[in-house]
Amino acid sequence: MPVQTNLALAQALSPDLNITVVTNAPDIAVLLINHPAAEVIMLGGQIQKSTGGAVGQTAINQIQGILFDQAFIGGCAMSPEAGLTGFNYADCEFKKVAMAQSNQVIVGLTADKIPAVARFSVAKCHEISTLVVEEKLDKELLEAFEAEEMTLITV
């Protein structure tokens, strides 16, 4: 399985951060169970091996009962024109529901996923609050994303 941006984010959480994490990814739940100030809610259902997360109606029903301050969404590909896209239909549908339940959508992607377009749409750029990308991304691409009215953070 490829490196998960959200797993890296979970690993970077400060031990002092008081947070509730809702995840469909068992590896993230297992990692954060030892975080001293995190409440962890694990969504259930069928675990899809290709994405490493629970997807399908069980997970969707559970997430529809939760309102989020922020949703951290990963993706397979993104371009200024197509927005965030993915290769797995069920995973993309889950992400759409998670985004609908959130006040702020934050997408983190590695530079190798930009610019690219995958098979299934997750969100247009204007539906994403913040895009976190590697600093080495081409300047023209960074400017194109900024023109889409999202906050851009380079790391």
From TrEMBL:
Keyword Magnesium assigned: no
Transmembrane recorded as keyword: no
Protein origin, superkingdom: Bacteria
Keyword annotations of the record: Repressor
Any single Pfam family the record assigns to this protein: DeoRC
InterPro entries associated with the record: Carb_Metab_HTH_regulators (IPR050313), DeoR-like_C (IPR014036), NagB/RpiA_transferase-like (IPR037171)
SMART domains given in the database record: DeoRC
Domain DeoR-like transcriptional repressor C-terminal sensor intervals: 5-134
Protein name: HTH-type transcriptional repressor glcR
Organism listed in the record: Enterobacter agglomerans
Gene name for this UniProt entry: glcR
